[in-house]
Design goal:
It is built from 18 helices and no strands. The protein has one domain: Na+/H+ antiporter like fold. Helix 5 (about 80-110) runs antiparallel to helix 15 (about 295-310), helix 8 crosses helix 9 and helix 15 (about 295-310) packs parallel to helix 18. The protein is an all-alpha fold and about 375 residues long. Helices cover about 75% and strands about 0% of the residues.
Length: about 375
């Protein structure tokens, strides 16, 4: 379907229902985002080509969805909780062990396939997708100390790999990339400081009361303003908008997110922008390119299996195996790597698709691990 209009929006929204429908099948328990990705794969570039993923308007809406998904994920990290802070040392140790294992596997893959991207492969296999894994955890209503630890580990790994990706993929621009990422972090810290001061003075409470009384949604408007402004800074400094959304979400969570804002964000994100993004992402995948370059099929498989093995190394530090596999889920970091590599012609034909294939393998592993973990953390009702 070419062009863009209400018909396209209706189609993408309808396709997004595949996620909830598959998740509603008790025996499958497929995570919603996995179903949305699969549906996009079927109707997109690797399937029937029904959706024109190159449409600039659809791409822009998908980017808004990505930023909102990362923002919501950031707000849901309980950074103010004592339990999470107490979990950080062990979570960081597990993430470091995963990173060390991934570095060794990255060297092996780079040597085996004669590619100079050992650092990039290591970052990819080390990464955990907060945008994918945390919604899976929430949708399955997983609870317990082990779940809290893996959530902290995923958030830590996701943030670290987002920061390291530009340095790993283009070492000659490492300084510029680091300064760009620091600019986003600095903006988020300024926003946090201002929000905390406003909260201390009681201004946030007064705004909340006025907004609720007159139904103005001022908190949502302010959050979207800050998100879009920070995303603009990210685009201008050539940093992925995932960092902008996640950093702002952490800043809001650190101050304390009002429940009303949480409900509003959930509504606009999960009701429209999130499924649109995941359907578009699945539709954008160029899996067919691998057929013409079979060696990259092996590379993609190596990256996917290597990521799962690297995260399973955390078993040494007491992490349950299903949660270790769940934490291997990749999404934003491989997508950002493919975007950067494609824009700057860094990859050989089929190599970008290999990175996505690796991510798909980890997503499949996450789906299986989520089912196994749900059986052990079943919550009635």
């Amino acid at each position: 379907m070419h062009g863009f209009g209400f018909a396209t929006l209706a189609l993408v929204t309808a396709i997004g229902f595949v996620g909830p429908l598959l998740a509603a099948i008790p025996r499958l328990r497929i995570p919603v985002v996995v179903g949305e990705l699969f549906a996009g794969l079927v109707v997109g570039n690797s399937g029937f080509g029904i959706i024109d993923v190159g449409n600039s308007t659809l791409q822009f809406l998908a980017n808004i969805g990505f930023a909102l998904v990362m923002f919501v994920v950031g707000t849901q990290i309980p950074v103010r909780g004592l339990r999470l802070r107490s979990a950080l040392p062990l979570a960081a140790a597990r993430a470091a062990l995963v990173g060390t294992t991934a570095a060794g596997l990255g060297l092996v893959l780079a040597f085996e396939f004669h590619r100079g991207y050992a650092a990039l492969y290591a970052v990819l296999m080390s990464s955990s997708s907060a945008a994918l894994a945390l919604p899976v955890i929430q949708s399955l209503r997983l609870r317990g100390s082990d779940v809290l630890l893996v959530a902290a580990q995923i958030a830590f790994a996701d943030a670290a790999c987002i920061l390291l990706l530009p340095l790993a993929i283009e070492p000659d621009r490492a300084l510029v990339a680091a300064l760009s990422a620091l600019s986003i972090a600095g903006c988020a810290l300024v926003i946090f400081a201002l929000l905390r001061e406003f909260d201390r003075r009681g201004l946030l409470r007064r705004v909340h009361t006025h907004s609720k009384k007159d139904r103005l949604a001022l908190e949502l408007r302010t959050s979207l303003l800050l998100l879009f402004a920070l995303a603009a800074v990210a685009v201008a400094t050539r940093v992925s908008i995932m960092l902008a959304g996640f950093a702002l979400g952490l800043a809001v969570a650190a101050v304390g997110e009002p429940r009303r804002l949480a409900r509003q964000l959930f509504g606009i994100t999960e009701g429209f922008f999130s499924p649109l993004f995941f359907v578009w992402l699945g539709a954008s995948l160029q899996v067919g390119e691998l057929v013409a370059n079979p060696k990259f099929i092996a590379l993609g498989a190596g990256l996917g299996v290597g990521a799962v093995l690297a995260h399973c190394a955390a078993r040494v530090l007491g992490q349950p195996l299903p949660l270790a596999v769940l934490s291997a889920a990749q999404l934003g970091v491989p997508v950002a790597a493919v975007t950067i590599g494609t824009e700057r012609n860094l990859f050989a034909a089929g190599e970008a698709a290999a990175l996505i294939l690796g991510a798909l393998i980890t997503i499949g592993g996450t789906s299986i691990a989520a089912r196994l973990t749900a059986r052990k953390h079943e919550v009635p009702g």
